[in-house]
């Protein structure tokens, strides 16, 4: 009996649900004893690679594998499962090889069996994807075969078919020309650099140079499973050969032969681990098979992601990246890496809302169900909490000692601060004490922003201090009289909260930070060793003060994931002002895993016209991001009336829901996103009247069942296969942007947040995106 290792290939690991249990049983047996008679592990006559084997999954299906003999053990590379005849043909033609320049392993398909594999000719297997309509069941699988298992030129990442969206209802006109798709492209490298520097063979280099537009190079990238897929994607995004090598951590390793050991060595390089993984045990194998492509993030990290997971930093680090570039995935893996390295470490993983924190907690369990989890702030293990929940936990654990911090921040001691201030408290304070306020400042929005950006962070408790405080980044200038008027309202607000025994969220975070800072100054230490922050762009000054106070300065103290294009709450700020000095420790992820290139292009189009700065106040550019996947161009549909728009939506959702089972998905992977709860409920009832059942989602998680409707804010952190953005008319832009009562700066910032909100919403769509409105279209929609 001979145990063996198993190496799974990323895109081929998606196995038709009907074959999952058989595939698992087969592979489990293979790792226990590859000579077990039921497996029928057999070499193939006239095969291009003598290492190739087929194995019997059941009467109809065969697995194709490669057997590698290392110094001490045997490993199998799992290539895929096909119908018997296809499997034999693929096994005859496919070969593993070591790249002569960089030593990485490659999967090559020979044009004919036993012919020296045509490394110089890329040969798509029958039915392999060549255009935007690549689907998960491309390849030689029969109708009953494994939809996800393709030929040697499989599709990367496509999880659902890309059938055109069902026709819109009556009284609607499709404005599909809004999004240009084909963008001209030219490789930023010479032929010699591609061949001698990167390691592409001559023919592939030729094909790369011949690609005239983005579609062509993306299609070419999708034809490979090994390191070349990511390398071509980087080239598609405009990288030079030096940049590709740097991002994928490709080093030169000439002289490696094609021996089994050389191939195994090549497989262990970071550039290979984005596509190949050594399966650790049967539990892991089961999860890889069961989760298929949806669990790919758990197993196959892009070399850049891996770098940010494993590297140590001597202080705060900032990882930026557009929607869907895998920032959250990095955070989850990094939390796990830190917890495994030191089980006693107190690791806090936090984000802006409770919903997002719940999603992080669920995904961390998916990543590693056995990871030690902390229940309370200060316990060893990983604690996952929303940032406001951290503040309240710190306040609760302080007991009556919190009184001094309340005094410090608010100017009067109190330990009765567990309740939250009512949402309309600023309005009430303006009504009580706002008579001297100029009209432009007469808004709860302005006062809350002033309070959170200037008053609380500075621990200002007296009018005299407010009158002379610096107000960087606040836009609106205030003279002395205006400041006095603002202060009167702030005092009224504080007085009312004092009577009620409440704190608002920003006050709670500031008070908690003050308490923790004092404790640390008294030598009582900090509550956490490592803090990992998601959605950093949405956090307020008080949050950053709290986070800085929770963890002492030191190695791996703060790791911040953020995307300033997705700031939909709060105001722009600069981290350095809150004791978080990044200086030179920031990097960006650019490969979008979630959305198709077409949807990404649309989403990025929404951002045009806004100017953005990151958390270090550096300009943030749009347009750097690229996607590995292709799909239909988003449809934008103008409707004559609300009723017409509802008819269109009903048609569309009905059609998508019918397609879902054929595409192997539940209907809850379809979402309608709207601007607010009122509209959400209106859509749900309007569709109900048209016989289409849609479930409104609020705070709860999305569960298997009918399509869902939710607000664009709630959609943050989620993703769906198909998304309808409903009601994208000019009227959907809220009053603060249109109304006369607001200052120019406030309006501009609010408009920027609206753009970001639409960008967030559009970037939730993995496969298909449709946008509808009635009346006048929102000015934020991209124009063709
Ligand atoms: N290495 C990977 N392999 C496969 N899928 C991945 C990988 N990394 C991320 N993904 C998938 O891409 C999608 C987006 O990932 P993630 O949520 O981490 O991105 P994000 O940058 O945090 O996005 P957002 O800013 O929009 O929240 C998820 O479906 C995730 O599973």
From TrEMBL:
MF term (GO), any: 3'-5' DNA helicase activity
Could you say which residues bind ATP here? 321-328
GO BP annotations, alphabetical order: recombinational repair
Give residue spans, biased composition: Low complexity: 124-152
For this protein, the record's InterPro entries field holds: DNA_helicase_UvrD-like_C (IPR014017), DNA_helicase_UvrD/REP (IPR000212), P-loop_NTPase (IPR027417), UvrD-like_ATP-bd (IPR014016)
Name the EC number(s). 5.6.2.4
Query: Which domain of life, per UniProt?
Result: Bacteria
| UniProt keyword Ribonucleoprotein present | no
Keyword tags: ATP-binding, Helicase, Hydrolase, Isomerase, Nucleotide-binding
Stretches assigned to the UvrD-like helicase ATP-binding domain: 300-603
Instruction: Report the Pfam families cross-referenced here.
Output: UvrD-helicase, UvrD_C
Residue ranges of the region described as Disordered: 112-152
**PROSITE patterns of this UniProt entry?**
UVRD_HELICASE_ATP_BIND
SUPFAM superfamilies, per the entry: P-loop containing nucleoside triphosphate hydrolases
Q: What is this protein called?
A: DNA 3'-5' helicase
